[in-house]
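G., the chain you wanted modeled:
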Amino acid sequence: MNDRVLHDGAPCDDGFAQSRALQYGDGVFRTMLWSGGRIADWDLQMDKLAADCAVLSLDCPLPALLRDEIARIAGADSEAAVKVIVARRPGGRGYRQATSASERWVYAFPLAARIADVYRSGARLDFSDVVLSEQPLLAGVKHLNRLDQVLASRAWPDGIDERLMRDREAHIVCGTRTNLFCVVGRQLLTPPLNRCGVAGIMRRKILECGPALGLSVAEAKLTDTVLLGADEVFVCNSLIGLWPVRRLAGQSWAAPGVHSKALMRVLRHPRISLQ
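Predicted structure as tokens:
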């Protein structure tokens, strides 16, 4: 045992004690849906993992290696949430990085119960008072520091499915675990993520699908007035696909709206249910 490291008062030789993920949050992660014996949108997930690793100058694990490890821990499940963490290997002292070499953790968790009525009649949202931290160099990256989201998840109101978060200029950026869209006329709008927020792969898919459904697609700063006056609002991520929004801050929508429903069909996400 290492008497120079104590964990809960006891000497500790656990390698994670030296991890830069623990000490500095020096890493990135992906949360993915395992369904039907595979990861949904595997290629997009691996593209995003590689891009986020590149921002931190981290060596990205080979997709074939991750595919094998994920199959080993999730293969017996019909559905699961899979989380992959990639962090810098220990080395050097202090903040300065000594290597681009990475280590990884792969987790499999049971999925939350399917909430079919959310897809059929819409989700209930509210606003969080927690302001998103801004670091443009990390904007869009799913890095390991999620303390903004931890704070926003405290005292979560009963009956609320997701909470929306704003930047320091009071523009609405995203949910605690989702990207945000609204439809205004024939425009499909989503907040820019050049200062904060995570650019999820479902966001990317929806932006690519919009024009084929007759919608012009744009990034736009969303105020409360714009969002609450929109024709449709929805949120998305890899695990839920797309949730149409039924209620937010006293405003109500008929959900799912025409465009939300069309996108739900096009996305063909394994957990979306319109029945």
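The chain is about 25% helix and 30% strand.

Shout if anything looks off.
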